[in-house]
């Protein structure tokens, strides 16, 4: 049972006769009389209300939606009673806050279902968090004709909406594809590299490398002919997404893991267009997600579906186990992309000891999400993320010892990160360390540079 605002108003109206009661009789006579009226009216109202037990709720499937985009979540309310009172009142579709209910406000629908009929209600969502957003039940309140009280019941209505990564770096894809077409078409190379294949023959021009001469074709034509090469297609690209505790650190409004996902999607779209085979491995101490053997146009949908439920695990990454997974999944030479935060304490103890094992067989590209707030702190500027009230006080009174220590600590962190980056490069890996919005395009540029150099 639930009481409404009308019931409260009805009780409040009894204060007037209770105040007048001492003039005509005992003071409590008016209160008792009014209480009897309220109880009787409430009981009659509940008796005449429709029963929520006669309702069934069937939830329709909600399609996946990208983070921040709107989606409709319909449900059907069916009255199983062949005859009887209609159910009037309200229904609350109990989605969690991260599902982002936009209408009706609070997910509260007006409900009016006659016996034996059904009604379709639609809740509109705009999710504010990636992953699976579940809903377990709805709450029905069936009001009586007086509107004083309602029968309340929670009805099971399980469902979910899968919120996919937003892929905000998609805007960089046309420019990257244009550079890829230039690389794959007009920009043939004259020197054969490890990741190149024969393209065509053409006549010699000044400046060509003598090693590119095709002597048989030269003899047939009676003029110098050279071979040209192009970046090899159908290469293996394995993207390893680190889901350990270091990926849980937030840069701005999102964890590092989300920025790494965005970079992985742009790289996969570009590599798929280049004809390469792209696989995904999300791992910390165990494999959290895996995508193998998918080709465009099914590649990106498979990736976003696999990435959507991923959350950082508060454990250290097991890099020796990652090496074993890489050996099993990519036995021949290919491009290995490690999307992992370059944090000195974690990487020096686990990643660096095994990195040379990976670079000995594969081309390795390490992508790391940098925190822009660190640069601001090192330069003595209070950032929007780290400044807050202390930053406003510092602007008003000038720098103090706290700001100096903060800047020194940030500078030390930057130096440690730079030293770690140098060690990773010494181990034979290419490194892209950039802010969240810059990491996807820079990672794509690094992939194209490796492809142009014939290192894949």
What labels describe this entry?
14 helices; 28% strand; six-stranded mixed beta sheet; 456 residues; Immunoglobulin-like; alpha/beta
Descriptive notes:
With 456 residues, the chain is of the alpha/beta class. It folds into three domains: 1-164, Immunoglobulins (Immunoglobulin-like), CATH 2.60.40.10; 196-231, no CATH class; 236-452, 3-Layer(aba) Sandwich (Rossmann fold). 37% of the residues lie in helices and 28% in strands. It is built from 14 helices and 20 strands. It has helices at residues 5-13, 15-24, 27-48, 173-184, 215-221, 256-273, 299-307, 319-329, 344-350, 352-359, 372-378, 388-397, 401-426, 439-452; strands spanning 2-3, 55-59, 65-66, 71-79, 87-93, 101-103, 108-113, 118-125, 131-143, 149-164, 196-203, 225-231, 236-242, 250-251, 254-255, 277-283, 287-291, 335-339, 363-369, 430-434. Strands 1, 3, 5, 7, 9 and 10 form a six-stranded mixed β-sheet that branches. Helix 6 runs parallel beside helix 14. The longest helix has 26 residues, at 401-426. The N and C termini lie far apart (69 Å).
């Amino acid at each position: 049972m639930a009481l409404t605002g009308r019931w409260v108003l009805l009780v409040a109206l009894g204060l007037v006769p209770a105040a007048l009661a001492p003039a005509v009789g005992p003071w409590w006579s008016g209160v008792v009389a009014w209480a009897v009226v309220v109880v009787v009216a409430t009981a009659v109202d509940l008796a005449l209300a429709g029963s929520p037990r006669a309702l069934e709720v069937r939830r329709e499937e909600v399609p996946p939606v990208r983070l921040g985009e709107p989606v409709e979540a319909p449900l059907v309310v069916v009255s199983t009673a062949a005859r009887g009172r209609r159910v009037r009142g309200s229904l609350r579709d109990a989605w969690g806050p991260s599902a982002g209910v936009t209408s009706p406000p609070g997910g509260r629908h007006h409900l009016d279902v006659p016996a034996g009929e059904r009604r379709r209600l639609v809740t509109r969502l705009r999710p504010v968090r990636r992953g699976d957003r579940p809903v377990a039940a709805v709450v029905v309140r069936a009001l009586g004709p007086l509107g004083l009280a309602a029968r309340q019941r929670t009805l099971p209505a399980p469902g979910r909406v899968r919120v996919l990564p937003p892929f905000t770096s998609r805007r960089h894809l046309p420019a990257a594809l244009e550079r890829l077409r230039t690389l794959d078409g007009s920009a043939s190379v004259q020197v054969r590299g490890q990741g190149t294949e024969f393209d065509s023959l053409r006549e010699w021009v000044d400046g060509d490398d003598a090693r590119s001469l095709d002597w048989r074709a030269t003899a047939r034509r009676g003029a110098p002919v050279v071979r040209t090469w192009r970046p090899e297609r159908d290469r293996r690209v394995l993207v390893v997404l680190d889901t350990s505790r270091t990926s849980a650190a937030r840069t701005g409004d999102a964890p590092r893991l989300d920025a790494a996902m965005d970079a992985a999607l742009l790289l996969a779209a570009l590599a798929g267009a280049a004809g390469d085979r792209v696989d995904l491995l999300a791992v910390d101490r165990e494999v959290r997600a895996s995508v193998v053997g998918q080709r465009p146009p099914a590649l990106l949908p498979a990736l976003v579906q696999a990435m959507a439920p991923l959350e950082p695990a508060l454990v250290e990454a097991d890099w020796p186990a990652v090496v074993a997974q890489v050996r099993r999944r990519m036995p021949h030479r290919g491009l290995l992309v490690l999307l992992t935060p370059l944090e000195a304490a974690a990487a020096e103890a686990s990643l660096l000891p095994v990195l040379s094992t990976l670079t000995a067989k594969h081309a390795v590209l390490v992508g790391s999400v940098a925190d822009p707030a660190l640069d601001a702190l090192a330069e003595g500027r209070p950032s929007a993320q780290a400044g807050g009230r202390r930053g406003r006080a510092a602007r008003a009174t000038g720098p103090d010892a706290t700001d100096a220590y903060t800047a020194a600590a940030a500078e030390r962190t930057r130096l440690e990160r730079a030293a770690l980056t140098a060690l990773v490069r010494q181990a034979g890996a290419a490194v892209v360390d950039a802010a969240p919005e810059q990491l996807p395009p820079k990672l794509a540029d690094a992939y194209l540079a490796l492809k142009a150099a014939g290192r894949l």
